[in-house]
Amino acid sequence: MTLRTLKWLTVLLPPLLIGGFEYVRHEFLLQMLSMEAGNVYITLLTLLLSFLFSTWVFRQIRQSNEKLAAEEAKRAVYEERERLAQELHDNIAQILFFLNVQLKKGQIEEARSAVSEIDHHVRQAIFNLRTPPVEGANFASRLEAWLEEWSGLSGIAVERRIAADFSGISPAAEVQLFSIIREAFTNIRKHSQADHASIELGPSADGWKLVIADNGIGLGQEYGEGGAGAYRYGLSMMRRRVESLGGELAIGSGDEGGLKLTMTGGWKL
């Protein structure tokens, strides 16, 4: 039953039933029922109708809530699948680009390393599929958990300034935002030679702002032909995703040297 139908039933049903009873009483039962007895009957009838009607209404609401909860659970599964698919696509695409360069140069050991990393990403994705998501975790808390895990694995300290409220973020934008952050920190781990990184994410005058910086070697150094190519490919992917959210990506030097990525604009969150 639709909310519109439920609203009109709530408005019309009680007055029609009670008014109908009063009409019948005055037209046909006035000689049989005194005024006092009629008032008692109408009070009991109102109580009975209110109980039956409210019971029925709350049953409809409960059924609607159960249906919404089931749909929300399905949506959460689809969102998680989309996030994992995007993660696999990004990581493997970048590594395959690097692998192709190394094979063309005949650098077999580097190619083997790239294949091992693809294997690692696939195994991690399988593990994530088998691990149930944390119930009630919001975007900020999941991002904090991911950064904590990344810092432990990479040995690079991460300073975090992340807004707590992301209730307005859409599932599609959340996937894109997570991909941007993951790509940036993957580049820090692989290429920057940094021992400290920072992330700032929150509202700004123009909408939203994301700043990721490290104290590594920055863009002024060469990583080798293959490494530099893979690095630039990752930056290009980030730029496309930022633009898809309606923002802009600026690349520069950080306060501690290293690299600083600043993403600003009225993001479509």
What labels would you give this structure?
269 residues; alpha+beta; Heat Shock Protein 90; five-stranded mixed sheet; 6 helices; 66% helix; elongated
Explain this structure to me?
This protein is of the alpha+beta class and 269 residues long. It has 2 domains: 3-68; 138-269, Heat Shock Protein 90 (2-Layer Sandwich). 66% of the residues lie in helices and 14% in strands. The protein contains 6 helices and 5 strands. Helix 5 links the parallel strand 1 (157-162) and strand 2. The chain is elongated and about 110 Å long.
What would CATH call the class of the largest domain?
Alpha Beta
Could you spell the SSE succession in H and E letters?
A: HHHHEHEEHEE
How would you write the strand order of the largest sheet? 1-2-3-5-4
Number of domains: 2
Strand content: 5-15%
The CATH superfamily of the largest domain bears the name Histidine kinase-like ATPase, C-terminal domain
| Unreliable residue runs | 222-230
- What is the CATH architecture assignment of the largest domain? 2-Layer Sandwich
Radius of gyration computed on alpha carbons: 31 Å
How would you classify the helix and strand content by structural class?
alpha+beta
The percent of residues in helical segments reads 55-70%
**Total helix count?**
6
Mean pLDDT figure:
76
CATH topology of the largest domain: Heat Shock Protein 90
Oligomer: single chain
Count of individual beta strands: 5
Distance between the termini: 32 Å
Largest sheet, in brief, is:
5 strands, mixed
C-alpha geometry? elongated
